[in-house]
Every structure is written in structure tokens, then in C-alpha cells.
Write a structure and sequence with these properties.
The complex is a heterodimer of chains A (252) and B (343). Chain A has 9 helices and 12 strands. Chain A has 252 residues and is an alpha/beta fold. Helix content of chain A is 33%, strand content 29%. The radius of gyration of chain A is 18 Å and the shape is globular. Chain A has a single domain, classed as 3-Layer(aba) Sandwich (Rossmann fold), CATH 3.40.50.300. Chain B is mainly α and 343 residues long. Chain B has one domain: ABC transporter involved in vitamin B12 uptake, BtuC. Chain B contains 14 helices and 2 strands. Chain B has helices at residues 9-29, 37-46, 55-90, 102-115, 124-144, 152-176, 179-190, 198-216, 219-225, 229-234, 239-261, 267-279, 283-307, 316-339, and strands at residues 145-146, 149-150. A two-stranded antiparallel ribbon of chain B has the order 1-2. Chain B is globular, with a radius of gyration of 20 Å. The two termini of chain B are 26 Å apart. Classes of the chains: A alpha/beta (252), B mainly alpha (343). Chain A binds chain B through residues 48, 51, 53, 72-78, 80-82, 84, 87-94, 97-98, 101-102, 104-105, 129-131, 133-134, 151, and chain B through 1-4, 91-93, 149, 220, 223-224, 226-228, 230-231, 233-238, 276, 280-282, 338.
Amino acid sequence: MTTALVAKNLVVVRGGSTLLNDVSLTIESGELLAVIGPNGSGQSTLLGAIAGDFVLDGGSVTLNGSDLAGLAPRDLARARAVLPQQMVISFPFTVREIVAMGRSPWRDNNDDTHIDAAMHRLDVASLHTRIYQTLSVGEQARVSMARVLAQDTPLLLLDEPTAGLDIGQQERFLAIARSLVDEGRGVVAVLHDLNVALRFATRVLVLHEGRCVASGDPQSVLTPVLLSDVYHQKIQVTTTAEGRSIILPEHQ
Amino acid sequence: MTTARRTSIYAVGIFLLALLLATTLVSLASGAFQISFPDLLRIIGNGPSDESIDVVAHNVFWQVRLPRVVLAVVVGASLAVAGVIMQGIFRNPLAEPATVGVSAGAAVGAVIAIIVGLNEFPLGVQIAAFIGGTLSTALVYVLSRSDGKTEVVTLILTGIAINAFAGAVIGFGVFVADDDDLRSVTFWSLGTLGLATWKAVGVVTPLALLGMLISAKFSRVLDVLALGDRPATHLGVRVEPVRLQAIAVVGLLASSAVAATGIIAFVGLLVPHIMRIVLGPRHRHLLWTSALLGATVTLLADLAARTLLSPAELPLGVVTALIGAPFFLLLLRTTRRGQGGWA
């Protein structure tokens, strides 16, 4: 399973304001790229741009060598899956029905296998007859992720996948994300928790006011100086007794 | 209801077919002129050319009642399927050809056609109704959407505006119509199967069948659309082209139904809702079961319209509105509660 997405010099302008300004990134098999930055820095816009959601005002995105704009929606859906920030579903579908929708670009004999595997992996198999709208926020997030996994794509784009999860669910979720990367998939995730980015990402891209201000290895990118500057908040990076780095806001 | 309890599709299918068959037989037998069941079966068995049993019963059956029943079935099924598709593409259980103004738009098209004399041409009124209905579907779609979704309030208010406009045009039509046209114009706004003829059946049925056949291909896409436009796109759906095609199908189904019978409200609202409770929201079975139940409900409503004040006849649209409007209010309340209110 190989994937390679290359985004070059992306520009997105909406209503006169530049949401993305000359942002470039690459993502390949076996990478987990965390996109971080203060709220409103353009993370979701970046994810939408590389998902092919809208026409770019500048720059280009290629997936495995082909221009994203030229790919048929179905071929694109077989190559990349997107987990939206929040899903409002309009009719009382059951959990299994929702997860099964992830198979719609494929529709083959393996559908049930993929659906069952995805539900099992996200631990939502026991919820299969429950109606999505009646689930808790954390359960809904897991069901949505199971739907994305059922799509079985080499590339996954996740918009704040850990929002609404408690610390235990978050750890289990990130372990799943890590195992997807180990399988050779590529993952791009918009994250708000810097410690999560530090621990789980293979690379980090920091957005600030629509620009990429740093990108690379998490340990070298997530420095107190850069973070304090970007978040307008004094931030320190300390090391625990076990030798793990943690990012903390400084006391005022 | 947090866990879905879904009834077997076979049981539901057989039940709906049996119900439709029984309702059809009762409808064929009952009315101002009663035909006994043994006579009914003999008339059917002998075919349209053999008048040996009872000439009156024979003519009532073949010339009046059968075309009326067939038209009720076709129109009821069309309206219910149009309701299912509309709710699917608007992602909203309150969308329905009549409430959002599509039926009124079709009626406006028909009324204008009658006034300007297009009813002299074959299919002139039907084509005008189709254009009116499809245009108003597109109008509702454009006006009631923002940020890729349709808010309930906007949808209903748009419907009010279109219905008000249509009411004015129809009122104007009544004002300028001569006596011949007056009856036709009045009938569009009230809805009735009383003018059912084999000719009307012959016009509507192919259009309805075409619309229903096309609608079958939308079943999976309509499911995925429930996730929202962007997630549907991410799953490989070409959302805008699909939505335009679906709107055209709604226009076809609703307009051909309205062209034949006038505005029959709430069938497209009530029927899909009942089927969704029984079978769940997946469109694959929702579409055809709604067609069956829509046919049955319309037959029953027409039976009530014909027999309640017999020999006088109530307009069918009046009967469906009497039952449908309270139901619509109920659905409005539960939808509101589901959304935590709207303001």
C-alpha cells in the first residue's frame, strides 16, 4: 500500500481574506503528519484543499502523480478518506449502516469483511444496531472513524479526530492511527493537542495565519520559542523523569 | 428509540402488497353505485368487451372506477416516491412536493396553460405543469440552501412564499377564466380523482413509471447524502449532478401527478415517514415500499372522498390535507425537538 500526496504552493482566498498562503506539504506511506496551529490558522482549509474539496486559487495538489482536479470522484474516494470535524447525519441510520457507507466507492464482495473489521477496530461492534444520533460524542467520533477505515484507502485525512474523546479513548484512537501508519498508510491529522502531536506524529507542520511557519521532525519543530510566538502564550517544553518531553503553558 | 428495530423487508413487502390489493378491490366495488364482490370478480374475469352481466355495473367498472383506481395508484406512488427523493436530497424529513411549493408550481404551470389555451394541444397542460413543478423545485433548492445544507425554517418559509405566489396566480386564473376553464382551474387547486379517464391514465403512467425507474438508481447515493455534501463527495458521489438529476425526477413525478389530479398534499410527507419508522432510512427499500403505501393511502383517501358524503364527492386534496396537516404539525414538533429548537 503506497501513497504519495504532494501539495505545492497552495493559495486559498475566501471573501477577500487569504486563508492559505503559499503552503506546501508532502505525505507518503508510513507517515503521520500532524497539522497544528492556533484556531483559525487554516488547518481545516488545508485539509479541504488536499482532499480536493474546492478549486484552489493557486498551487497544485497531486496524488500518486496525477493532478487531484483531474481525478474522478470515485477514484479519489478509493485513494483517500476524510474524517470531517463533525458529522450531522440527517436520518436515523444505525451504526452499521453508517460504517457501511464507507464502502460505497467499492461495493464488492469484501464489503462485509471491511465493515466488520473497521467496527471491531474502533470498538463499536457492540453498538451496531444503535441509531447514530443517540450516541455520545465519543461514540459518534469512533463510528465516523470506523466509516473512514471501512473505505480502506492508502491515505487518510483526519480533521481533529480526537476532539470529544477522553484521555483513554484518545490514546486508543492514536494507537489505531499509529497502526494505520505501520500498515503503510499515510495519515494527515489536524491536531490541537501539542503533546499528542509530539508523541505520535512522524512530522509536524505548523500553520500560522495561513502560512506554514515550520515543518519537520516534531522534536525539532515544537520548540518553546516557536510555540510561544505562534500561540501568543509563553510555552515551555520540559522533560519528565522517564525522559519524555511535555509541552506546557508557563504560569503568568 | 435508541436501538433500531427493523421489520423484515419480506414481511413488510407482502403486507403492503396485500393491503394495496385489498384496498383496490374495496375501491373498485364501493361508491355511489355499489358493485357486489361476486359481480366484480365476474366483470373482471369476463374482460372489457363482455357486457353480459349488468350493463350499468360493467360500464361503471370499466369506464369510471377502474381508470380512477389506476390513476389513484399511479399518482399516490409518484407523490410518495417524490417525497422520499426530496427528503433525501434536502436532507430533511419535512420536504415534500406540496409543502415546499412544487405541486403549487406545477399547478401554476397548468393554470397558465389553461388560460392561454395550451389545453388545445395534446400534453400541453402536462408539459406546462412539468415545467412549473421543476422550476419551483429548482427555486426551492436554490433559495433554501446555505452552506450546503437546508435549514428547516428556510425550507418551510420558502414553501410558504411559493405557495402564496402560486395561490395568487391560481386566483388570478379563476378571475380571468371563462366558465369552461373555471372548472379546470378550480380542480388544480383542490385536487381530485373525479376527472380520471383512461386518457389521463395513459399520459401519467409512463411518466410516473419512468420517474420511479430512474429513482431506483439514486437509492445508494441518497443514503450517502445523509452524511452531508462534503462527506458524500469524499465517498465518490458527484453531489451536484446527482442532486440536479434527482430534482428533475421529483419534478417529473410530482408534476405529472399534479397534471392529472391537481394538488394532493401530504402523501409525500406522511408515507415516507411511516416507512422510515418501519424499515429505517435506507433508500433501497424505502423507495418501493413508499410507492406501495403511497398508492394505498391515496386509494383510501379517495375512497373516503367518494363515500363519506355520498352521493356528493369531497375533493381528494381536502381529505389528504385534513389528515396530513395535523400530522405535519406533529412532525414539525418532533423535528424541532430533535434539533433542540430553532430560532
